[in-house]
Amino acid sequence: MSCPEGPPLAVRPVDIPASAEDELRRALSGHAAPTEQGVRAALAGMDLDPLFAQQVTAAGGVVGVALRGSQYDCLLARVDGERVEVWRPSRVQLAPGELSCTADVAARGLGQRPPH
Questions:
Q1: By three-state DSSP, how is residue 104 classified?
Q2: What confidence tens digit (pLDDT) does each residue in 59-112 have?
Q3: In sequence order, which residues have a C-beta less than 8 Å from that of residue 94 and are 6 or more positions away?
Q4: I want to staple 63 with a disulfide (CB 3.0 to 4.6 A). Which of 24, 75, 79, 97 is the partner?
Q5: Where along the chain do its domains lie?
Q6: What pLDDT digit, counting tens, does each position of 2-40 carry?
């Protein structure tokens, strides 16, 4: 198989902007009883880069959200009733063999504090 004609595709790193934390907090706030469907709708209303991996999961009345850019660029959120928490795990916490950038990790509230 040969390569396609034309110039090479430009691949850019996918970094989640700092402003996404406040935007995500606002989008998830104000829902009395958050549901996975409601959180997905709130995310759809945000102007997120389509290259961000998005995960949403609900467990025990809590909804977890994970947005992932590059390997060490992760934004997590946890919605529990009217309480919304948004955080970025440290690079150390996202190292191979440590926490994953997943909605399950977010729902459990893991990675909110630095490991040391």
A1: helix
A2: 989 999 999 998 889 999 999 988 999 999 999 999 999 999 999 999 999 999
A3: 71, 72, 74, 100, 101, 111
A4: 79
A5: 19-107
A6: 777 888 776 666 789 999 999 999 999 976 678 999 999
